[in-house]
Amino acid sequence: MTKRNEEWQYMDTLRPPVYVCLRRKADSNGVVPRLKIDGRVDKEEWSHVPWSDAFVDIEGVVKKPTVYPLTRMKMMYDDQHLYIAAELVEKQIWGTILEKNATMYHENDFEVFLNPDGSRHNYYELELNCLNTIWELVLNKPYKDGYSIKNPYNLEHVQTAVYVDGVTNDPQVECTKWSVEVCYRLSELVQFDRLRERPARAGDVWRVNFSRVQYQLMTVLDEETNELQYAKVPDTREDNIVWAPTGVIDIHRPEKWGFVLFSSASDEHEGILELNKAMETFLCEQIAMEQILDTIYYDQRTFHATHENYAESLEELYGKTEAFPRLDLVEEFELSQPVIERQSDPDATPVYTPRGVETSKKRVYSPRLDPDDEEDARKPPLCRFYTVSIKSATQRWIMTQDALLRKIEAS
C-alpha cells in the first residue's frame, strides 16, 4: 500500500461551506430597480440577503483557532447580474496601491474566486484594496498543478466600490470597518462555465471562495512629511482569513472552496428550503464523490513522488481495493467503485523516425509500435497520465491527474 498523503488527510476533515444565493427583490410594481454600486452594504436592497458565517483562518479552526476581526459576505443575483457584498471590520484601514492590476496581496485586500463549472480549472480571481484598486486574473490551472495564468484578465463590465467607515491611512483615527460591493454581468461570466455554457439560473451550483489578506501594522513617522503613517510590522507574515478554509496556506485549492446554490426565491426561508432539497437530492452525494476523487488524486501525488509515475489501478495504489480509505462514502451513497484508467499524453505529437536511423533522444511517445523494436513494444511501468471516475445512479464525475474535474452527462 502506498503512503497516504498527509496534507489531504487533514484537508479532507474540512467540509466546504454552502451558501444560498437569493434573487434580488422586486419593488411593489414587480420591477427590480437598478442597484447603485457604492460600497454600502447596509442599504435596503441587501436587507433580505443572509450574511455568511464569519471568515476563519485559511488553515481551519482546528489548526489555527485565531479569532480575527469580523469578515463576512453576501451574494444575490437577478436575470442579468451577480452581486457580492463584503464587510471587513478594521480599526486600521490602510492601502497604498493605486495602479490597476498591480500585485495586490502585498497589502491588505479582499479577494473573490469564482469557478462556475466546478472544474477547478479556468477560474476567475479579483483582488481589491480599500482604495478600490483592482487586480483581475484567470488561472487555467492551480499553482500546484503546473499553473497556467492569464494576468491581467480584465472583465469589461465588472463594477466595484468601497465604503470606508473611518479615514483611510490615518493612524490618528480609529476606524470601524470597510465594505465592498462587486457587480458582475452574468453573461460575461459564461466563459468560466464550460459545463453549462450559459448564464447562471436557479438550481445551478458554483464553487466560490473569498479571502481577506491582513497584515499586522505599526505607526511610524514619515521623515519627509513629518506625518504619522502605517507600515507593516517587519518579519511577520500576513493572515489569510477566508470563507472556506483550504487547510493549507494556499487559497488555490478549489477542491475545498464553498458551494453556492442559485435559488429561485428572494425569501431566505424559501431559499434555505431549496438548498436543503438540493443537499438531499444531489449535492451531498456530489460532495462525497468529489471527496473520493480528491483522495485518489492526492494519494496519486504521493505515489508519483516516489515512483515518478502514477498507479494504474486502485490495487496498485493501495495494495488491494478493500484498502481504499474512503470505502465508507462508497457504501453510504451506494456508489460504484472508483476506476483509474491510463491515458496517453494529451500534448504529445507523433514523430516519424525512418527505420535504421538512430536518434540520440529516447522516444517517449509513438502512435504505432514497431514490432521489431523490443524496447518500444515493452509496456512502460505505471503511467504518466490517468483519469479516475466514479458514478452513482444519477451522476458521473471524472478527474484527470492535474485535478481537472468534469461532470459527464448521461447520454
UniProtKB/TrEMBL annotation:
GO molecular function: carbohydrate binding; hydrolase activity, hydrolyzing O-glycosyl compounds
InterPro entries: Carb-bd_dom_fam9
GO biological process: carbohydrate catabolic process
Region (Disordered): 341-376
Pfam families: CBM9_1
Domain Carbohydrate-binding: 37-127
Name assigned to this protein: Carbohydrate-binding domain-containing protein
Organism: Pythium oligandrum
